[in-house]
Amino acid sequence: MSRDFPVPSYEDINVFDSLDERAAAKNFLGKDLKQAEEMFQEGLEFFTEDLMFMGPQAFCYYVQAAIAYLTSPASKGDETGVFSFCSTLEFWLSEDWEKISPVHNLIQNGVATITELFRQRHFDPNEYEDVPDRYKAMLDRMRSIRHE
């Protein structure tokens, strides 16, 4: 994990003082990458909305822990975490992709790895059949934006 970013301040997490940002600050304020990854191991799906609505600097920091968790053996069996993280990344890609440019490569590499692990771990195709395709479409979109 890259530690090029400082632990986010309250203002990094809560940019517009929205209810969602305040919730994210409550859960993440003062947590380093290791603590965030441990939190994600307890249930990433409970924190993906926080990742979605926190400020871009905070997202750039904490997405590192999410990707580290999802690409580690600890995430084996966490279909819901993989699914909910996909929605979070789709949100950033459609809303504020340019604001998180410092982590574009990290996200692209993480998405490629997560997609491969998803296939290897044989998640329930009835419940999560579209997830690999959604990650692949997202990766294709990221690459096309890069070349525009």
Short descriptors:
single chain; 148 residues; mainly alpha; 68% helix
Structure description:
With 148 residues, this protein is mainly α. The protein has one domain (10-146). It is built from nine helices and no strands. It has helices at 10-13, 19-28, 33-43, 48-53, 56-70, 79-95, 104-120, 125-128, 131-146. Helix 7 packs antiparallel against helix 9 (131-146). The chain starts with 9 loop residues before the first helix and ends with a helix. The model has no long low-confidence stretch (mean pLDDT 92).
Largest sheet report = none
* Amount of beta strand: under 5%
Q: Tell me, rounded to a whole number, the average pLDDT.
A: 92
Alpha-beta classification:
mainly alpha
Low-confidence stretches: none
Number of alpha- plus pi-helical segments: 9
In short:
This protein is mostly helical. It is built from nine helices and no strands.
Q: Topology of this structure?
A:
Blueprint: H1 10-13, H2 19-28, H3 33-43, H4 48-53, H5 56-70, H6 79-95, H7 104-120, H8 125-128, H9 131-146
Helix pairs in contact: 3-5, 5-7, 6-9, 7-9
